[in-house]
UniProtKB/TrEMBL annotation:
<dbReference type="GO" id="GO:0006974">
    <property type="term" value="P:DNA damage response"/>
</dbReference>
<feature type="domain" description="YiaAB two helix">
    <location>
        <begin position="12"/>
        <end position="64"/>
    </location>
</feature>
<dbReference type="InterPro" id="IPR008024">
    <property type="entry name" value="YiaAB"/>
</dbReference>
<protein>
    <recommendedName>
        <fullName>YiaAB two helix domain-containing protein</fullName>
    </recommendedName>
</protein>
<dbReference type="GO" id="GO:0005886">
    <property type="term" value="C:plasma membrane"/>
</dbReference>
<dbReference type="Pfam" id="PF05360">
    <property type="entry name" value="YiaAB"/>
</dbReference>
<dbReference type="InterPro" id="IPR038972">
    <property type="entry name" value="YiaA-like"/>
</dbReference>
Length: 81
C-alpha cells in the first residue's frame, strides 16, 4: 500500500480521535441516564452505530476514488470500461 502525500497531520488525527471518543462517551452516558424503555435505548444506540459506519464508509470510498483518479477525471469508472 502506498502512502498518500496529503495525509493529515498527527495533531489532526489525535484531535479527531479525541472528539470521536468524547462525543461517543457523552452520547452513551446520556443514553444510559435517559428515562426510556430499553428497546428505545437500543434503537437509538444502533442508529448511532449505523451513522458512524456510514460516515466511515463514505470517507473510505471517497479516498479510494481519489486514489484511482476518478474524482478528478483522470480515470474512468470501473463500469465505464
Amino acid at each position: 500500500m502506498k502512502k498518500h502525500a496529503d495525509r493529515p497531520s498527527a495533531a489532526f488525527i489525535a484531535a479527531s480521535c479525541c472528539a470521536l471518543l468524547l462525543g461517543s462517551a457523552s452520547y452513551l452516558i446520556g443514553l444510559f441516564n435517559a428515562e426510556m424503555q430499553r428497546n428505545e435505548k437500543g434503537f437509538h444506540g444502533m442508529a448511532y452505530a449505523l451513522a458512524l459506519f456510514g460516515a466511515v464508509a463514505v470517507q473510505k470510498n471517497t479516498r479510494d476514488l481519489m486514489a484511482a483518479g476518478v474524482i478528478h477525471g483522470e480515470a474512468p469508472l470501473p463500469s465505464e470500461e
